[in-house]
Design a protein that fits this description.
The complex is a heterodimer of chains A (558) and B (528). With 558 residues, chain A is of the alpha/beta class. Helices cover 39% and strands 12% of the residues of chain A. Chain A contains 15 helices and 13 strands. The longest helix of chain A has 38 residues, at 343-380. Chain B is of the alpha/beta class. Chain B has a seven-stranded mixed beta sheet with strand order 1-7-6-5-4-2-3, with helices on both faces. A four-stranded antiparallel beta sheet of chain B has the order 10-11-13-12. In chain B, strands 8-9 form a two-stranded antiparallel sheet. In chain B, helix 5 (93-101) packs antiparallel against helix 13 (354-391). The chains are: A alpha/beta (558), B alpha/beta (528). Chain A: Residues 14-33 are annotated as: Disordered. Chain A: One of its GO terms (molecular function) is pyridoxal phosphate binding.
């Protein structure tokens, strides 16, 4: 066995280039094409400090564009909820309004009034009650919205406690361990104890109402309930939590509010025939005081817009609001960001009036139908089983009925052979409600038959075919289970889905044909991180050892 | 009589052809309820109101929705004539193209868009170096990238300076708290020392993170902090000091060096955060010798807005810490997906990647040379405007020749015969299309009023001349009016001409708040 030296490609290029570097005259020369300047071969593109002299704009454009081509293809990224498709007209609006600053209310009043209308439309969509004055704001995303929602709950609790002359040192907030990282960030940054309740197969990997009951006390500022768990797409039972809190209030007199994190579900549940399984989740429940959603997920806008709405102005403590005077005008402000682009808000309004209720409904139903087809196809192979439930019929008697699944498989086989047209007449109402997300894993049979095949390898091989399908473990208490997750977005058409299923089947077959030795090589490769990741790791070391904090909690993409 | 005339009977009388013809003509107004249109304005949507409060039941064709929204947006002001804001309104076409191509990229999705993430790292590195951030060792730094080995500077991109400032305050607070807990002391009453001229997000940060504000007030002839007063306010509960590189009122740079030196002289270890939202991309190019950044020992963090003099469209800011030590670990969340770990310290999560890409474009497109050329031109234009206004009899409150941001703050000379004030002049200019805001200065300056012109990249000498001509004309007009008509006009303008005064969406409950500096003292927050 020969010893080999580690080769650092960057170092190599640096040295080799240095040997024949030519000194230029310091000024950029005239050029024919973007590729005929110094940057074409003589000079490296600046990476760490501003170059002394600039470069022609077409050159810089070409260089950056070429480099960005190494980024993934947004549409094949099935890991993310974030919208990747804009209609041409929406794109046009976006470009035309790139320079507009949402914070500059005096200069851009028309844009501001659109933001106002979006808030109003969303409040109505979420069942705001008569006589209540809903109030809300646009945010950069759901993270900011969650921070604001949590902050308002904390301040209300503090005010109440102070009025009662009680201690305000130890606030806590309750959420499930399937929570997105923003919820935990809120707790950390605003000094609130996070009571992260473990999830289990019993609770369908979402917040467990029984555990909520045990963890309530006088210091609970509120409960984050997630409408659409990012792991499996299940809606958390807002209505059950609300009942538990009613009970608690009856017993102790303590009124605990709910904030619904409807980042993904806020634009799905209201439109689909399934709703949230016939239950209430929005402002129709008096206990739900605030709701947030991401416009850039199923709101169908590209990244950079979220919304948070309080059911009534009385739930927004006064001392959090700043009044800004501009040129004689006044503006109320409750945001963490100030200057920020406004184009996304314009596109959100465009979508709302362009699609209308029926347009959104059609899109969401399509997503769900495609997600059902994918689930059933996967289960029909016999190699995979789904943890998400949207493809299971409501009448079938629940989630665990094995016979039900088999039925579904049979049906799918016929449906698939019939060109998938058997699906079209169905609406989501017949199925268990949830986000159009498919979470799946190897069946137990498959695992016992091929113990050497790792699920991670499926994800890796699919990546080679351009699909991004992440493989990660469930929240802490269930972290021995790994899942693959596909988010079905608007742009995932039946045709694309067909390709995906074929590719997953092919990849799995390849794995089954190969023996253990071949697969170990794959695993080793997998461990060798890309250059980019390497850099990240180094930086992390500089920051210290906070990897523990991951504990699997923040593994899902949103 | 020659002519005999027949007398028509009833039939003939009633059967008037004209009337019949009238009756036959039906107004054939189209009443097609479908979505087919000749042009956008021929559709039913043009004649009905746009939905405001409730989602429409049915769809609307995309061309129509586009046109309706575009038309409505034409009511927005013209960004070019907006001299109130620092925020960039011009970018090259190529930059716009790059940004448009990246709309659908989610910036935080490192695994999917690694190149975008790498571009952010490069920007952080460039900006850190611009601010003289300490790198591990100069030799290693030359050979390899910065911030890979231990005590290097770290930084991140944000949506804007507000987020950057919140993060910096959070880091200072946590660090102070950890220190106090280690010493076994109380952590109940953190405070932060800052100028009363701060931007509103500092007040927000203090309020939201429960830190007491200790303010250094301005006086009638000093619009920045006094270093001695500032340091006097420091006590054991002070989490940090904020100094501003370029206040929003007069653009003057606060003397960070003096604060730093005083702290060292008194043996205090209080950290300084420099809010270089506007000045961070000006001072290093125009006055490179001014020491305000990481060259000063006590400066631990700096924020800068990419969308101001960084010359990018709104939506990007930067914050850099001297070293990882100043960023407590528990604030940094480690997010793992698809096998890639990313350390995250932001208040926002998903956001567009366009602006960060735009920033990188500008940095390498312009280079130091290009930024210096632009900032020098701006400084020249600002000087020219200052001199011209001075010649017109205004009192100039801002600094000239690179001692501050390229903006001109001015007020009218005191004169008892004068019937109008700065606000009236601002209104008059607005009628002519210019947005030149009038402000009431920071507290304790006896409600000094002022006007402010921000000189941005797209404000050329030519347009500067046009502005001066209009100021002259407006003044002449105001001079001719008597006291009463000015009062009347002012009231009228206030009611009808300012846009946000017409806004109906503000809840009455939250109006006239009394908790902020504005509520308490009548200071107006300058637009940034």
């Amino acid at each position: 066995m020969s010893l080999s030296r580690h080769v650092d490609p960057e170092d190599l290029i640096h040295h080799l280039q240095g040997s024949e570097i030519q000194t230029s005259d310091g000024r950029t020369s005239p050029h024919l094409t973007p590729y005929s300047t110094d940057y074409a071969s003589r000079k490296a593109i600046p990476k760490f400090s501003i170059p002394q002299d600039g470069a022609p704009s077409d050159t810089v454009y070409a260089m950056i564009r070429d480099e960005l081509e190494l980024d993934g293809r947004p549409n094949l990224n099935l890991a993310s909820f974030v919208d990747t498709y804009l209609e041409e007209n929406a794109q046009k609006l976006m470009v035309e309004n790139l320079a507009k600053n949402l914070a500059d209310n005096d200069e851009y009043p028309a844009m501001l009034s659109m933001s106002e209308r979006c808030v109003s439309i969303l409040a109505n969509l979420w069942g705001v009650q008569k006589g209540e004055k809903a109030i809300g704001t646009a945010t950069t995303g759901s993270s900011e919205a969650i921070h604001l929602g949590g902050l308002a709950m904390k301040r209300r609790w503090q005010e109440k406690r102070r009025a009662e002359g009680k201690d305000t040192q130890k606030p806590n907030i309750i959420m499930g361990s399937n929570a997105q990282v923003a919820l935990l960030k809120f707790a950390r940054y605003f000094d609130v104890e996070a009571r992260v309740l473990p999830v289990s197969a019993k609770s369908k990997f979402r917040l467990d109402p029984d555990l909520v009951r045990e963890n309530l006390d006088e210091n609970t500022i509120g409960i984050f309930v997630i409408l659409g768990s990012t792991y499996t797409g299940h809606y958390e039972p807002v209505w059950e939590i609300s009942d538990i809190l009613d009970e608690f209030q009856e017993k102790t007199g303590i009124d605990i509010p709910i904030h619904v994190d409807a980042a993904s579900g806020g634009f799905v549940a209201p439109f689909t025939h399934a709703g949230v399984g016939g239950h209430k989740w929005n402002f129709e429940l008096p206990r739900v005081k605030s709701i947030n959603t991401s416009g850039h997920k199923y709101g169908l806008v590209t990244p950079g817009v979220g919304w948070v709405i309080w059911r009534d102005e009385s739930f927004l403590p006064k001392d959090l609001i700043f009044e800004l005077h501009y040129l004689g005008g006044k503006e109320l402000s409750f945001t963490l960001n100030f200057s920020r682009p406004g184009a996304q808000i314009i596109v959100q309004y465009f979508n709302l009036i362009h699609l209308g209720f029926s347009g959104y409904r059609e899109i969401m139903e399509n997503c769900l139908a495609n997600a059902r087809l994918l689930s059933k196809s996967l289960e029909a192979t016999g190699w995979y089983t789904c943890l998400s439930d949207i493809h299971r019929r409501v009448s079938g008697g629940g989630t665990s009925g094995a016979s039900d699944v088999k039925d579904a498989v049979k049906k799918t086989v016929s449906a698939v052979s019939g060109g998938g047209s058997g699906e079209s007449s169905d609406t989501s109402a017949a199925y268990i409600a949830g986000l159009p997300v498919v979470s799946f894993r190897f069946t137990d049979d498959f695992k016992s038959q091929y113990p050497h095949i790792k699920q991670e390898t499926v994800s890796l091989l699919l990546r080679a075919r351009q699909w991004i399908i992440p493989n990660y473990s469930l929240p802490p208490s269930e972290d021995s289970t790994e899942i693959l997750r596909v988010v079905v977005r608007e742009s995932m058409s039946l045709d694309l889905l067909d390709r995906l299923v074929t590719d997953i089947v092919q990849v799995t077959e390849t794995l089954m044909e190969n023996d253990e030795v071949d697969l170990t090589i794959l695993h080793r490769q997998q461990k060798g991180p890309s250059r980019k990741q390497d850099k990240d790791h180094k930086k992390e070391k500089a920051l210290g050892e906070f990897r523990r904090m991951a504990e699997g909690i923040h593994r899902s993409v949103c | 009589m020659v002519h005999l005339a027949a007398i028509p009977n009833d039939d003939v009388v009633n059967d008037s052809k004209l009337v019949a013809a009238m009756k036959k003509v039906h107004l054939q107004l189209a009443n097609d309820d479908d979505c087919f249109t000749t042009s956008v304005y021929g559709s039913k949507f043009a004649a009905s109101d746009l939905p405001r409060h409730e989602m429409p039941e049915r769809e609307m064709p995309k061309e129509v929705a586009y046109r309706m929204i575009k038309d409505e947006l034409s009511l927005d002001g013209n960004p070019m004539l907006n001299l109130a804001s620092f925020v960039t309104t011009y970018m090259e076409e190529e930059a716009e193209k790059l940004m448009a191509e990246s709309f659908s990229k989610n910036f935080i999705d490192y695994e999917e868009y690694p190149q975008s993430a790498d571009i952010q790292n490069r920007c952080v590195s460039m900006i850190g170096r611009l601010f003289h951030a300490p790198t591990p060792s100069s030799e290693a730094a030359e050979a390899d990238d910065a911030c890979t080995t231990t005590p290097g500077a770290i930084g991140t991109s944000c949506v804007g300076s507000s987020e950057a400032i919140m993060l910096a305050v959070l880091a200072m607070k946590k660090r102070w708290k950890n220190q106090r807990i280690k010493e076994g002391k109380s952590t109940d009453k953190p405070n932060i020392v800052m100028s009363a001229a701060v931007q509103v997000c500092w007040e927000k940060a203090a309020r939201y993170f429960e830190v007491e504000e200790k303010l250094v007030y301005c006086t009638e002839d000093r619009y920045v902090i006094d270093p001695k007063q500032t340091v006097d306010l420091v006590d054991e509960n002070t989490i940090g000091i904020c100094t501003i590189l370029g206040t929003t009122y007069t653009g003057e740079y606060e003397d960070t060096k003096a604060v730093n030196d005083l702290l060292i002289e008194r043996g205090l270890t209080t950290p300084i955060h420099v809010d270089a939202a506007s000045g961070g991309f000006v001072a290093p190019f125009v006055v490179p010798d001014l020491e305000w950044d990481f060259r000063l020992e006590r400066v631990v963090s700096i924020n800068v807005s990419g969308h101001k003099y960084g010359l990018v469209y709104p939506g990007v800011g930067w914050v850099v810490w001297r070293s990882a030590e100043y960023l407590p670990q528990e604030l940094v969340f480690n997010i793992n997906y698809l096998g890639a770990d990313q350390a995250s310290f932001t208040l926002n999560f998903s956001k567009g990647a366009s602006q960060v890409i735009g920033q990188y474009y500008q940095l390498i497109r312009l280079g130091k040379h290009g930024y210096r050329a632009i900032m020098s031109n701006l400084t020249r234009t600002a000087n020219y405007l200052s001199d011209s206004l001075e010649a017109l009899g205004f009192i100039i409150m801002s600094k000239k020749s690179g001692e501050g941001l390229p903006l001109v703050a001015f007020r009218l000379a005191p004169d008892d015969d004068r019937n109008y004030d700065e606000f009236a002049l601002a209104h008059q200019l607005r009628v002519r299309g210019w947005v030149v805001p009038a402000y009431t200065m920071a507290p304790n300056t006896k409600n000094l009023k002022m006007l402010r012109v921000v000189v941005r990249e797209d404000f050329t000498r030519n347009r500067c001349d046009a502005l001066i001509a209009d100021i002259k004309a407006s003044q002449a007009l105001l001079q001719q009016m008597d006291r009463d008509s000015i009062k009347k006009q002012e009231a009228f303008l206030h009611r009808h001409s300012t846009n946000s005064a017409k806004a109906s969406h503000n809840h009455p409950k939250f109006r006239k708040e009394k908790h902020s500096l504005q509520g308490k003292t009548g200071k107006t927050h300058a637009v940034c």
